[in-house]
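Write out the bound-state structure for magnesium ion.
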Amino acid sequence: RAKEAGRNRVGHFDSDLESQAQQRLSIDRAVLGRAPQEAIEILLQPQLPIKAAQARPRFEVLARWRTEDGRLLMPNDFIPAAERNGVIGAVTSAVVCQAIRQLGRWLDIQGCEAQLAINVSAADLESHDFPQRLLKQLHAADIPPDLVEIEITESLLLRMTTSVKAALCRLSHAGIWLSLDDFGTGFSSLAYLRELPIATLKIDRDFIRGLESPNDYNLVAGMIAMAHAIGKEVIAEGVETPRQLELLAEIGCDWGQGYLWSRPIPPEQAFAKFG
Ligand code: C2E
Ligand code: MG
Ligand code: MG
Ligand code: MG
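---
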């Protein structure tokens, strides 16, 4: 319950409808009242090799919205607000912009190739020039596309159209990695695994939480075996305990991400600690 309060900092304590509507309005106002380029801050959460051969440092980019009066909004609140107010495209470009800047800094200063995974919304991929804009930005900053990974969700797969599919293929063809986020929580992704150039499955935290029960253990072991059989690697999300890590190593999970190693932290710290 305390955890939930932390995650839904806004809109949790008052649960009656009227105040929910008020919260929503206040988030809408915050999101419309400030340019995303100014409001967005990025945090990075490291992804650590479990069974994977040690490769380049790898992080997920997690966005935060700084309001004019200094409060910090969490993505579960402001991303839906950005989506319903038609500004998600600008939010995503602000995130992309900062991620690219960070990759550039590391390359310049430390000569280090790190890989950053960026979350995108369905609307991003539905806008016809998303791949083109992203690739142009990378080219302009002289960043190799294979330092960038795009995370899509299973719910996005439900909105899969030929143009979304074409966008994903275009990104992959240009060298950008694709991963499927929150794997196992959505609906009918198996058919899409055959068709889409997805390199990585991220097993949702819900399954990792239950890993010590035989049922979830077997389920996760099965997901990993299935992923490996079709040539995909696996990241476990939300790894919090040494015991979970031990079990994930036992069933051959490639990568882990979670509070066991680090919460999402500012980019400078991320590199100093995990670069
Ligand atoms: P996600 O992509 O599944 O990201 C993982 C979320 O789980 C993050 O929450 C992260 O802080 C949290 N997490 C990581 N490790 C642990 C752990 O060990 N225990 C627990 N309890 N939680 C852990 P966050 O940052 O609040 O992000 C929530 C969701 O918001 C993300 O879920 C992602 O779907 C979305 N999101 C974040 N940034 C962006 C963005 O730039 N664009 C879009 N479209 N969505 C974003
Ligand atoms: Mg993600
Ligand atoms: Mg996830
Ligand atoms: Mg998740």
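---
Confidence is low (pLDDT under 50) at residues 1-6.
Strands lie at 40-46, 48-49, 58-66, 72-73, 115-119, 148-153, 177-183, 200-203, 233-236, 255-256.
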